[in-house]
């Protein structure tokens, strides 16, 4: 049976961008979501974007009806791509369906709690069923995986042993958030952060890091990504991994202090529940709104990775630049799905981008999207 690509959350902002990329590529995606009317309208909007024999179709499914999500996938050859967030609230039905069917799965989350659950709890069941899980397969956190892997390779090529890998994410030109990103971000604000320290994933606030970005020093907040799980798989010497986000500019250090206070309060039994509830209401839900093409064109993704040895000496540094985070995410989701669909990932379980496809294929694929090494 020929596998299909099912795009769950197709009518949201990231979903629509991804649907356009998939349709232009002739992937004939099955567009899935809870509103038949919205799916019909989107299918009409996409008509003519791709080959005539690869037009998208649609199928209704709702996270509140897990059986309808399970019904989206009918073969181990299928690939389900989920853009339904916030993932901590809405993400389980899609990944559960993929594990149950033993098929391919790709998502756009950047939420630490969900990412950690995929690697720590879903890996075993996915291996047992034959599922291939690619979580956080967008701007967060594929570019950092690529940059980190290249930095490790450069250090090893020079005969050095990388022990520490640090990855910083930046955007040049500014970037407006979509409603989905806002909804996820407010829930992430009180979630416990984690990092890899001495070979162990543990909760930590971390510290602000400063990166050299094209000759300018830029601060970045510690965040929790997939790199903490995936980069140590590439080199046995890697014991510490830090991931950082540099969108806040001059507000980075005040934001770190505020985030630490909120995280601490969120751990209190009564106040924590109230804070989480309040943040959820403040963030609202994804409405499908986001920056238009002109706004996105002003933004450039910039990712820096560096390695250090055991005494802190820098061994290698890499800088990647590419399209805006939202455009890059759509391209990555479509590419990851296509690679799974064509059998380019033989491993099963919770996979990183390099685990799944190899460094050379990942670098080439990202270059085709415009994400390239510039330093």
What do these coordinates show?
It is a single chain. This protein has 375 residues and is an alpha/beta fold. The chain folds into two domains: 5-138 and 326-373, Rossmann fold; 142-324, Dihydrodipicolinate Reductase, domain 2 (2-Layer Sandwich), CATH 3.30.360. It contains 15 helices and 16 strands. The protein has helices at 13-24, 36-46, 66-70, 87-90, 92-101, 112-129, 142-157, 179-188, 227-230, 252-266, 269-283, 293-297, 325-341, 353-357, 359-369; strands spanning 5-8, 30-33, 57-60, 79-82, 104-107, 132-134, 164-172, 194-197, 200-203, 209-213, 216-223, 240-245, 300-308, 314-322, 349-350, 372-373. Strands 3-2-1-4-5-6-15 form a seven-stranded parallel β-sheet, sandwiched between helices. Helix 7 (142-157) crosses helix 15 (359-369). It starts with a strand and ends with a strand. The model is unreliable at 261-284 (pLDDT under 50).
Task: Please render the helix and strand layout as text.
Blueprint: E1 5-8, H1 13-24, E2 30-33, H2 36-46, E3 57-60, H3 66-70, E4 79-82, H4 87-90, H5 92-101, E5 104-107, H6 112-129, E6 132-134, H7 142-157, E7 164-172, H8 179-188, E8 194-197, E9 200-203, E10 209-213, E11 216-223, H9 227-230, E12 240-245, H10 252-266, H11 269-283, H12 293-297, E13 300-308, E14 314-322, H13 325-341, E15 349-350, H14 353-357, H15 359-369, E16 372-373
Parallel strand pairs: 1-2, 1-4, 2-3, 4-5, 5-6, 6-15, 7-12
Antiparallel strand pairs: 7-13, 8-9, 10-11, 11-12, 13-14, 14-16
Helix pairs in contact: 1-13, 5-6, 7-15, 8-11
């Amino acid at each position: 049976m020929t596998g299909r690509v099912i795009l769950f959350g197709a009518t949201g902002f990231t979903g629509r961008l991804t649907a356009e990329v998939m349709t232009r590529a002739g992937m004939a995606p099955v567009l899935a979501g809870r509103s038949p009317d919205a799916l019909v309208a989107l299918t009409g909007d996409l008509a003519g974007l791709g080959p005539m024999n690869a037009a998208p179709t649609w199928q209704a499914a709702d996270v509140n009806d897990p059986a309808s999500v399970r019904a989206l996938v009918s073969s181990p050859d299928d690939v389900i791509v989920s853009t339904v967030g916030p993932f901590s609230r809405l993400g389980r039905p899609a990944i559960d369906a993929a594990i149950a069917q033993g098929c391919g799965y790709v998502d756009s989350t950047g939420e630490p709690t969900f990412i950690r659950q995929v690697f720590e709890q879903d890996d075993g069941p996915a291996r047992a069923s034959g599922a291939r899980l690619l979580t956080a397969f967008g701007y967060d956190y594929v570019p950092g995986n690529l940059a980190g892997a290249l930095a490790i390779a450069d250090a090893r090529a020079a005969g050095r042993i990388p022990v520490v890998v640090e990855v910083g994410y930046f955007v040049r030109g500014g970037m407006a958030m979509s409603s989905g990103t806002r909804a996820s971000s407010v829930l992430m604000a009180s979630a416990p952060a984690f990092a890899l320290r001495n070979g162990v994933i543990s909760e930590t606030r971390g510290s602000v890091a400063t990166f050299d970005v094209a000759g300018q020093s830029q601060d970045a907040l510690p965040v929790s990504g997939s790199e903490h799980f995936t980069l140590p798989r590439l080199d046995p010497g890697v014991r510490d991994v830090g991931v950082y986000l540099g969108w806040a500019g001059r507000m980075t250090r005040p934001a770190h202090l505020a985030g630490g206070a909120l995280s601490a309060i969120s751990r209190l039994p009564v106040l924590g529940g109230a804070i989480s509830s309040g943040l959820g209401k403040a963030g609202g839900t994804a409405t499908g709104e986001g920056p238009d093409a002109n706004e996105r064109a002003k933004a450039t993704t910039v990712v820096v990775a560096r390695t250090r040895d055991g005494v802190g000496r820098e061994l290698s540094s890499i800088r990647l630049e590419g399209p805006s985070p939202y455009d890059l995410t759509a391209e990555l989701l479509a590419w990851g799905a296509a690679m799974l669909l064509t059998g380019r990932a033989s491993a099963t379980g919770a996979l990183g981008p390099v685990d799944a496809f190899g460094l050379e294929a990942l670098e080439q694929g990202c270059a085709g999207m415009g994400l390239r090494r510039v330093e």
